[in-house]
Protein 1
Amino acid sequence: MRHCVRDVGSFERLLGIKLDQAERDAFHQTVSRFPMSITPYYLSLIDKDNLVNDPIFMQSFPNHQELIIHQSDMADPLHEDKDSPAPCVTHRYPDRVLLLVSNTCAMYCRHCTRKRRVGDLDSIPDKETISQGIDYIRRTPQIRDVLLSGGDPFLLSDDYLDWILTELRAIKHVEVIRIGTRTPVVLPQRITDDLVTMLKKHHPLWINTHFNHPKELTKSSCRALAKLADGGIPLGNQSVLLAGVNDCPRIMRVLVQKLVANRVRPYYLYQCDLSEGLGHFRTPVGKGIEILESLIGHTSGFCVPTYVIDAPGGGGKIPVMPNYLISWSTNKVVLRNYEGVITTYREPDSYEQAFCDRNCASCDLQLNLDSANEQELLGVEMLLSDSDETISLIPKGNERYERRN
Ligand SMILES: *Cc1c(COP(=O)(O)O)cnc(C)c1O
């Protein structure tokens, strides 16, 4: 970490290249807004003979286009700051929260969605601040899944992380803990035996990492993944769809297959967010759908990530896929498969629809009520239910409805 490359001189020296004056000027302008930090390991993967097209270079080295603010750009498109009921906490979904335990990363990814904060205060929140976040989780019993994020939680010392995990584990309603980290990609040396030994004490623990290109799956990072997997930690991967880096069905197919070969399950493929400074990385949504089209059916089901758009304004992740349902009648569904074969599924002639008033005690289906948490009906789920009279969801401020009142 001490040897992270943060200035253009060191960058040139280590790669043995020379940027021209215009490139240096552009660099200085860009880093005055969005700083640079590259681990020596990640820098060593850069192909200096083809800088402009190199996926490692593009993800790590400042691009002058980051300074172009597009009309759709927002500082905090996901409203993470607004959905924060306590320090370090983003609570968006009913049963899970983000706990931001570190304000720093091994490398500053150029496509960071929290770009507004990068380099602001490269720090680890103190115990007092994190305790306030943990207190919120303690007094909010519907939270059963806590996602440690940041920054990168693996930039904390083993002892400090051990303390956080121990505190969370002591909370009865917290069933699973997840950690999001890019260290297996940019600082695989961080995955030490000591770290894994500590993590193993806190099962069930899941880890999501962030590979975007097959070039990142080096011997070192594969070794790091193997250590984590051998520690019994289920591994997932979240990629971001990035123009010029991985917006190609063939690259994506190689990436997901290599991940699975290393016991990592592709989890999400993100449409690039509307954060400021990411304009040059964005692709149309159609590119993501095209990639999924080339994965679904063509390769193992568990190679296929869910393609999501994180809704601006804090709406959360919305899955998007190609359409497979072509038509529907009262007893037949018409579908198409990945090869283009159009087929039908005949639905049952009779199906006894059990009326559900959400009174599980009087239902014939077997459910152990002690272990089943009742959740409030929400959104479209509510429209589908028998037990709720709501027939439509009406946007706030709808004029037609306001006239009625
Ligand atoms: C992504 C995210 C989660 C976790 O979502 P999953 O779909 O369960 O992986 C939780 N909270 C916030 C704010 C998120 O952005």
Note: The pocket of pyridoxal-5'-phosphate is lined by residues 90, 92-93, 96, 98, 147, 317 (CB under 6 Å).
Protein 2
Amino acid sequence: MTPEIPEKSPIRLDVDFYRDPHAVYRAIKQRGNKPTEVVLETGMAYLPPNLRAWVVTSYEDVEFVLRDPRFRKSIDKAMPLFAASAQGGGQAQDRSSLLYDNMANNDPPIHTDLRKPLNSSFTARAVAPKRQAMRELAESVLDAVAGHESFDLVQDFAFPYSIGVICDTLGVPREDRETFHQWVQTITSDAEPEVLRSDAQRMVGYLRGLVAQRRETGTDDILTQLAVSLGESQAVAQAYALLAAGYETSANLIVTGLLVLESEPDLKARVWADRSLVPTAVEEMLRHQSPFNLSLYRYATEAVEVGGVLIPAGSIVFLAFAAANRDDARFEDPDRFTVDTPRREHLAFGGGIHNCIGKHLARLEAEVAFDVLVRRCPELSVRTPPQHMEWKASPTFRGLRSLVVAPGPLRSGPGTAGAGEAA
Ligand code: HEM
């Protein structure tokens, strides 16, 4: 249902928004789809609770802000702006941690220095050879639930698989994945400040250890690349950015992707009958489900007119990628999920200089996951009823806490060649 909101009051983004962001986006659309003032109820990490900010929803406006240098990222300069924009004087849960001083939160020249050494490791060509290892990982994660009548797609498949992929990519030991997964979950949640701070400190300590080790005995992994090309604290912050941004979004894409297919039984049957449709389906899942719902912060360095609205200097701005990806001024019939035409011009991976560095890895990862699920679970079906689905309390990461599925009889692996491969 579209909530009715008085024209002038800021929209509160709360638990209803996490459950159904598109209800809020429809309300904004009814007001003319212009930049809109909001209050983000949930605080997390460096963002205080009840933060007053602007949300940009139309495709055209989102693209404009992504490329306009008057909207900046600088974690040092933004901290006082967060504090000034917090209604009721709320404090950020963790203002001191060096984890957030990474490429995702800074503009050039810092951003260039941090991102440039990594770009070549994340091109489509660089990640393509990972396909076979990803397939083996997905097969082995699925083997662990073989024989179960049902399992949790989030905790038993999507997270272990996507964490495994990012561990292997960075060179983080897989046996540590449970531990740092718990820390990342706390750091990206609305946990109590003491809990959040202590898990952030543990994460820093853990990453420091890995970086120090790679300085002693490097290998050809990305952690070594970070350890040798950056100072210690920069290497730690980059490793955190890659870990934190690099698995939850991918896991959420797999889960919400299955969910949207489940709501379209004919399309699901087509994908299950023809695995060559998987890459197009994944592209459409990215657009339709947008696992990165609201962007990270930006702030206006001066008053800027966007879509006919003047956003004052010093305002905090979030880009609603999920809304832009359903903008009917850009996509025909945008709420419809289709596997017939890839709509690759979506903004699920952002754009401009901060476009997702992991986009080729993420696409490949999701394609392999679905290819394995389709081939090995011909009768896979969702069991959690919609009224029992619990969404993560995050304005950024849109994902379910759990989704029970029944796999049906599992076909044995390893399989034949899959989507995008020569048969
Ligand atoms: C389906 C999976 C993914 C989605 C939907 C996604 C989405 C995004 C989006 C929208 C941004 C831009 C945020 C902004 O401008 O505020 C971004 C940035 C970023 N992503 Fe991803 N991402 C995914 C997977 C990954 C993976 C696998 C990695 C790690 C290899 C990764 C690492 C990053 C990093 C480090 C940034 C910051 C880049 C910069 O600021 O220059 N992401 N991602």
Note: The two ends are 46 Å apart (CA to CA).
Protein 3
Amino acid sequence: MGVTTVTDVRQTDRASSIEPTVSPESSVLAKLFRSEQGGHEQVVLCQDRASGLKAVIALHSTALGPALGGTRFHAYASDEEAVEDALNLARGMSYKNALAGLDHGGGKAVIIGDPDTLKSEELLLAYGRFVASLGGRYVTACDVGTYVADMDVVARENRWTTGRSPENGGAGDSSVLTAFGVFQGMRAAAKVQWGEPTLRGRRVGIAGVGKVGHHLVEHLVDDGAEVVITDVRADAVERIVARHPGRVTAVSDAEVLVRTPLDVYAPCALGGALDDATVGALTATVVCGAANNQLAHPGVEKDLADRGILYAPDYVVNAGGVIQVADELHGFDFDRAKAKATKIYDTTLAIFDRAKADGVPPAVAADRLAEQRIAERTPSAEWLRPEGSA
Ligand SMILES: NC(=O)c1ccc[n+]([C@@H]2O[C@H](COP(=O)([O-])OP(=O)(O)OC[C@H]3O[C@@H](n4cnc5c(N)ncnc54)[C@H](O)[C@@H]3O)[C@@H](O)[C@H]2O)c1
């Protein structure tokens, strides 16, 4: 096993003094050391030849506490692409964790390769030892390509693995609180758009009724909304429509859904749901859903605002899952985690207020608020010191 670590303990502009010797602006190293978008604290490249593990653990910031973020297992086209993805995802987690009110910085790991062919117990244990080697600076969890059962294996090698099964001290499926948090964000948007924090009498379209989406349907039906759903899995759609006759209807696909008369559109399937064509066609005046990275490209947030569509930033409203896994570190307590996820309502309102005050779209206001919280905290490694030491 070998560990290569690139460390910049504190994010400062001093790095610019060595600019002539660093890589071109477009390179991964430029993103790490120079870009305003990057400035990561530490990146660890991990290899275990015996199991075939190749992984990247990126810690964007530990200013608020141990970096927390999941492990993505994916067959990247190149190693550079994997590093780039880890850097971007880790930075996103800093923002998400900051606005979720967690005492956690942002980090993310990627394991390079096809999980269907490469994943093995040996590999996950080797990965767990790399997480252990960071001594608590990084706390891991599930992400695309990794599951609760995998985290149970990773956790055998360290104390900093969440997303485990309840039998192993974990909280299990995070989609319950994710859906609850999205519903809180939607209530906040309803308050701003229509004066009352309820979806009663509103028509909400949900694209993707998987783990999160189907829980969201229940919250909305309970609140008195009419729900229109779509999913590529016809069986999932039929089951939900049958459970709520007259309250939930279905349309053929997401393209039809966005053109259907709606008050709220909730993307709960894949990223990039809000592209130019979708924004142009939307009938809804609120967008609030669980999917990560909904804005297909920079500028979409402004197009939404220009059309009078209130966009509840994805990483703010879908933070229920990370709130849940963070709670595992303290011995999971569902009610405590739910109470924290309830605050997504206040946070979303604060973002809309800030957006109005600054004259910027809510996505920009969210980033500003997150950056403010991170900057206000004096970095400290207090959480790494042995108990009782100064
Ligand atoms: N599960 C969580 O706790 C959590 C937390 C934060 C963010 N998210 C994000 O929320 C989204 C949904 O997560 P999930 O856990 O429910 O995933 P999931 O895979 O259980 O559900 C996604 C659903 O979308 C459907 N789908 C895929 N492509 C579609 C399309 N083109 N049109 C309509 N439906 C389509 C799938 O068939 C599936 O039923 C993802 O973007 C995920 O990253 C999930």
Note: The first helix runs from residue 28 to 33.
